[in-house]
Design goal:
CATH architecture of the largest domain: Roll
Helix content: 25-40%
Radius of gyration: 20 Å
Strand content: 25-35%
Strand order of the largest sheet: 2-1-7-6-5-4-3
Structural class: alpha+beta
Shape: elongated
Number of domains: 2
CATH class of the largest domain: Mainly Beta
Length: about 290
């Protein structure tokens, strides 16, 4: 049982959280966010709970959570809640059907023979009854989008080479920055700075001095139309990047390691952090460049 609920008698969502020994981060966050009354006295709601370990798996230790403002926690908690009691059998089939949360942002649900997934994150338990709704357990804390794809890339120095490459393409025939701001939805297989270094771009200056059209070919091979979550890797093994007459191959090793491979990559590349939400898409982090 992923949620250690000490009270088997149906109670409110908030009381269920407070009575579970492995939901301490959710409990404290819900109180700080001022949502204890909401999830005690109103509803019905469907709430996706994440255990302390699931928060940690998302990089959210107790020390990290303490740095969040109350309003940030409010948005995170509300992003895990849907209006109405939606049982597992009533979850949309998808793939990746948008459902608006109490925060106003959407989660994307897939319900197939492999399980139920929210933003690519699997449910580990479902249909736990509360007096004001239902509770489902997820194996990773759901995090709302913190910006657009461009904003997320630019905000993290781990991707400064990719960010510089985007800007450099504006000097050529294919302006990747403009593409990513057209209002369309994309998934980016986002290479780290070390991925660029391994490919011969030793510094940001070497990116800034590279041929913009050559960089555009590199970048657009990493950008795919639509939202591609890890839950799609089995059902959609082949995907096609924008503006590139080639494909990418998706895979799952041992049921736990998600991979992507370009036609020119000798081996499949494992994902690092996955299913990072943006307002206009999804980011999957990789440690090497994809090669057509």
């Amino acid at each position: 049982m992923p949620v250690n609920n000490n009270n088997p008698i149906p109670t409110s969502i908030y009381k269920l959280v407070t009575s579970a020994s492995n939901l301490t981060l959710l409990d404290s966050s819900m109180s700080r966010a001022g949502l204890d009354s909401l999830f005690s006295n109103t509803g019905p709601y469907t709430f996706f709970v994440a255990t302390d370990q699931a928060w940690a798996n998302a990089g959210l230790s107790d020390s990290v959570v303490r740095l969040f403002s109350d309003s940030q926690l409010n948005k995170i908690i509300l992003y895990s809640a849907l209006n109405g009691s939606i049982s597992s059998s009533q979850m949309p089939v998808g793939p990746n059907s948008p459902v608006t949360t109490l925060s106003g942002d959407s989660v994307f649900i897939t319900n197939n023979s492999s399980g139920i997934f929210v933003n690519g994150i699997g449910l580990t338990a479902a249909d736990i009854e509360a007096t004001n709704g239902l509770v489902d357990a997820v194996n990773l804390e759901l995090l709302p989008p913190a910006g657009t794809l461009i904003q997320l890339i630019q905000s993290d120095t781990l991707f400064s080479f990719f960010s510089a490459a985007i800007i450099r393409t504006s000097s050529g025939q294919t302006d990747v920055n403009q593409i990513l701001q057209t209002g369309h939805i994309f998934t980016i297989f986002l290479p780290t700075n070390d991925a660029f270094r391994m490919a011969g771009y030793t510094t940001v200056d070497s990116v800034n001095n590279a041929d913009p059209d050559s960089l555009a070919q590199v970048l657009t091979y990493h950008i795919v139309p639509g939202r591609i979550f890890t839950s799609d890797f089995i059902t959609t093994p082949t995907i096609h990047p924008i503006y590139v007459a080639d494909s990418l191959t998706l895979g799952v090793l041992g049921g736990v390691i998600y991979t992507v491979q370009g036609s020119g990559n000798v081996v499949a590349l494992p994902l690092g952090q996955s299913n990072i939400m943006a307002h206009n898409g999804v980011i999957q982090i990789i440690g090497q460049l994809l090669l057509p």
